[in-house]
Amino acid sequence: MQQFVTSLTSLLSDNGVTISGTHIPVYALRLLILVVVAVVIHTVAMNVIVPMLVALSNKTRTKIDTIILNKKLLRRAFHLLPVMIISAGLPTIMDSESDTYILILRLVSLSYTLIGLAVYDALLSTVRDLYDTYGKSQKVSINGAIQALKVVGTLIAVILAISLLAGKSPIYFFSGLGAFTAIIMLIFKDAILGLVAGVQLSAMDLVRKGDWIEIPKHGADGNVEDISLTTIKVRNWDRTVTAVPAYELVSSSFKNWRAMFEGGGRRIKRSIRFSVNSIRFLNKEEFDRLRKIKLLNSYLDEKLTDIECYNAEAFCNADMSMLTNGRRLTNIGTFRAYCDAYLRNHPGINQELIIMVRQLGPTEFGLPLELYAYTSDVRWIGHENIQSDIFDHLLAIVPEFGLIVYQR
Q1: DSSP code string of 317-342
Q2: What is the pLDDT of residues 122-138, one digit of tens each?
Q3: How far apart are CA 38 and CA 273, in angstroms?
Q4: Could you report how far apart the first and last alpha carbons of the chain are, in Å?
Q5: Domains within the chain, CATH numbers bracketed
């Protein structure tokens, strides 16, 4: 006990203390006390102050303080506290010209660099998470830029750490980077290409998080879940995940369905094939029966007037019992007019976009009649339901026109 009191008293002198025959310099004891004080303050801050701040942030309505505190930014920043205490107290307890002081100062500077890198990393992550809380983040992702800044920050921190350990100016190492450019390009090839691609994708707004994209080359077909510096993560419709290099979206083609969702219409482009043997002219009885269809009433009246006027002028002296003389209505043409009128009166079809019913070239599988229109509901299930309802009705109504749907 007496020896401990003697040792503690001698700290105020310049001679140091001798314990069990070992002489300990006074600066070492003072440094030890400084380190203990720094550790105690750091422990109190991490176990008392930080939890208290986190608890207060959880009670507020704003998300900003919660994100900042829960993303390790404040925790990592508090790691600078003991280093700052040691850095501030070091000149008062040691000779600034001594080798020990220079060594400890380098270690302190190295700690500043490494902890500063950790704080820098947490700060960028916090900025990204804060940005993700805004609606604009769905249109323009900054993940690629954030990761690029992290890579640059890590590279600078490594150079600074090496310069501190070697005792040389960082400019010496920065000036020597030119000799290692080829190696750096090889190591960070994907990161550099991804950075350039990320800038292009963001500038041209080619892809956003949540977009439905198709990249047949990589078998990707689904929603974009994440856009990073080097890869685009796509959740396919079969629930698998495909990781595509970011630069592949710029160097090769891909399909983005976002414009379809924003345009308010999803395309129907499907054909019904008819047996050519069932196509013929309408007789009077069929004309009178089809004229009772409300969607065809005005069409048939206008068409009949037009045909009679044309035949009266062009075939005034011709034998109209011959089918080759004059114009006549056909069952396929009348059905095409019915399909067009049906689409233009359907509540599920976007009337502002193109609506067309056309014949395609006859094949060995019959004559295709293609419906080309856009549903108002761009959602997958809604679109398929509307499309199915339309073709259910048209296939069921085909026999009314004397037509036969082709099937082998």
Answers
A1: TS-TTSTTSS---BHHHHHHHHHHHH
A2: 888 888 877 777 765 55
A3: 85
A4: 107
A5: 2-200 (no CATH), 204-261 (2.30.30.60), 266-401 (no CATH)
Residue 233 bridge partners (DSSP): 226, 243
Residue 356 to residue 371: CA distance in whole angstroms? 6
**Which are the contacts of 106, defined by CB distance < 8 A and separation ≥ 6?**
164, 165, 167
What's the Cα-to-Cα distance from 149 to each of 64, 154, 180, 260, 347, rounded to whole Å? 22, 8, 20, 34, 51
Contact 245, 235 (CB under 8 A): no
Q: How many CB atoms lie within 10 A of CB 16?
A: 16
Cα dihedral value 106, 111, 112, 113, nearest 10: 90
CB 110 within 8 A of CB 165: yes
The pLDDT of residue 13? 47
Q: Any idea how long the chain is?
A: 408
Q: DSSP secondary-structure letter at 130?
A: H
Q: Burial of 373 by CB count in 10 Å (0-12 exposed, 13-18 middle, 19+ buried)?
A: buried
C-alpha 369/C-alpha 389 separation (Å) is 17
DSSP 132-173: HTSGGGGTS--HHHHHHHHHHHHHHHHHHHHHHHHTS-HHHH
Q: pTM of the predicted model, to two decimals?
A: 0.59
Nearest C-alpha neighbor of 110 from the set 72, 161, 170: 161
Sheet holding 367-375, edge to edge: 266-274, 367-375, 356-359
- Least confident range from 266-270, 311-315, 333-337: namely 311-315
Q: How far is CA 192 from CA 41, 114, 204, 208, 263, in A?
A: 43, 24, 18, 20, 35
Residues 6+ positions from 378 with CB-CB distance below 8 Å: 260, 261, 263, 264, 265, 266
What are the residues facing 236 on neighbouring strands?
A: 222
Q: In what order do the strands lie in the sheet with 231-236?
A: 241-245, 231-236, 220-227, 212-215, 255-256
Q: Give the single-character DSSP code of 22.
A: E
Phi, psi of 211 (to 5 degrees): -70, 145
